[in-house]
Amino acid sequence: MKTAQFFAPVIASLSLVALTASAQVGTFQLKSLTPETALKAAQAALDACHKQGFQVAVAVTDRSGVTQVLLRDRFAGPHTVEVSTNKAWTALSFRSSTKDLGTQTQANSPMSGLRNFPRFTPVGGGLTVEAGGNIFGAIGVSGGPSGDADESCAKAGIKAISDAIEF
Prior knowledge:
Structural class: alpha+beta
């Protein structure tokens, strides 16, 4: 019994140290895209599509899903503004490419109900912008002849800023 009495204060002290060490910090830091970096990604995506003869709109959101940059080629359809914005928002919100979400939410799948969610746009062309395990935002492209074409342009936009966001 004396051994247990001796170790009780030691165990209590260690528990207090462990509890204090695991206590949450009251603040945290986030890295975000600068407007200049978001613009560079959007311009690169627009240029990639333009070189292929596609008239598109490109939207880049911040890490909260708020549109930071929106560019629309002069002959892109009027729907492309909303669709590109919603593709970026969808990719960011669900932390997945919109092409993958299109597959995962097919009719009769467990996730098919997401297709009824406002703004949810499960069509290729929306990608998260991430590096070093952090999501900085998302990019959405609309107006190409297919979701695959839109996605290739979105990838070009991300590639153009990859050096700026790697750390």
